[in-house]
């Protein structure tokens, strides 16, 4: 007991003198690193660094998917740096879709603001989990797994997503295959898709090879 009682003041003393940083507003003029952006000098930090208004209005709809995705990641909202979260706004027109994609660096929590969204993800065991999420409801997409969102019914929908990282990353499967210079023969070999179909999809999405 006496050794334990002796250690308590020592631990308290060590904790009280530990360096604790409340925040690290990103200096986005520098390069991002695996540990995040370097901190902006605290003397230059203002209240506006902790407020972001970019999700207050609908995003610009992309015709191909009839949807808009407006991010509030660390590059748009530097106050998120080092805090382990970020957000985005999703505007879906009627029939709008966010194609199969993944976020390598974060789990996603989707909250539907208006309308209905059919969404789902594919597990590592190739099990598919799909649900139609209504206004006020939430759905979770585990980190790194392929998932999608589609406006359900004849109306559009609006949702907000929150991520467990200030920079969750994004890779859209269709764009990785058909908007890149990934060669058609290799795509055909690795996906079993018909080469003519691959060429057609590359023509739509702007890929080459």
Automatic annotation (TrEMBL):
GO molecular function: manganese ion binding
Binding site for Mn(2+): 101, 103, 108, 147
Compartments where found: Secreted, Extracellular space, Apoplast
Binding site for oxalate: 103, 108
N-terminal signal peptide: 1-18
Similarity remark: Belongs to the germin family.
Protein name: Germin-like protein
Record organism: Arachis hypogaea
């Amino acid at each position: 007991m006496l050794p334990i009682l002796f250690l308590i003041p020592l631990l308290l003393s060590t904790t009280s003198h530990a360096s604790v940083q409340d925040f690290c507003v990103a200096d986005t003029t520098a390069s991002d690193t695996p540990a995040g952006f370097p901190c902006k000098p605290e003397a230059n930090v203002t209240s506006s660094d902790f407020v972001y208004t970019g999700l207050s209005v609908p995003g610009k709809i992309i015709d191909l998917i009839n949807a808009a995705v407006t991010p509030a990641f660390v590059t748009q909202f530097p106050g998120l740096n080092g805090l382990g979260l970020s957000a985005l706004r999703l505007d879906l027109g009627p029939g709008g879709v966010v194609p199969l994609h993944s976020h390598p660096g974060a789990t996603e929590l989707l909250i539907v603001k208006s309308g209905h969204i059919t969404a789902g993800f594919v597990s590592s065991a190739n099990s598919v989990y799909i649900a139609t999420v209504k206004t006020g409801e939430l759905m979770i997409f585990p980190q790194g797994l392929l998932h999608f969102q589609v406006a359900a019914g004849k109306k559009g929908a609006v949702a907000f997503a929150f991520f467990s990282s200030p920079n969750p990353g994004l890779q859209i499967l269709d764009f990785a295959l058909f908007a890149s210079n990934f060669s058609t023969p290799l795509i055909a070999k690795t996906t079993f898709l018909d080469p003519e179909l691959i060429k057609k999809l590359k023509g739509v999405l702007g890929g080459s090879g």
